[in-house]
Amino acid sequence: MEHAALLEALDRCIVHTDDQPTLRGVFAELTQISTETNKDRHLAHGAIQPSFVLRRFVNGDLSGLFEDHSTVRFDDDAPIVVVDTSELFARGDLVAQLSQICTTAWNQAVISDRNAHKTRYVIREEGWRDMTSLASLQMYQQWLKLSRHYGISNIVILHKMGDLDAVGEADSQERNLAYSIAGDIENKFIFRINQQESASIQQRLSVPPAHADMARQLRKGEFLAYVGQYSYLVDAFATSTDWEYGLFKTDDAMELPYLGPVNCSTSSHPTSMLSGRRTPTWTAG
Question: Which sequence spans correspond to the domains of the chain?
Answer without folding.
Answer: 1-69, 258-284
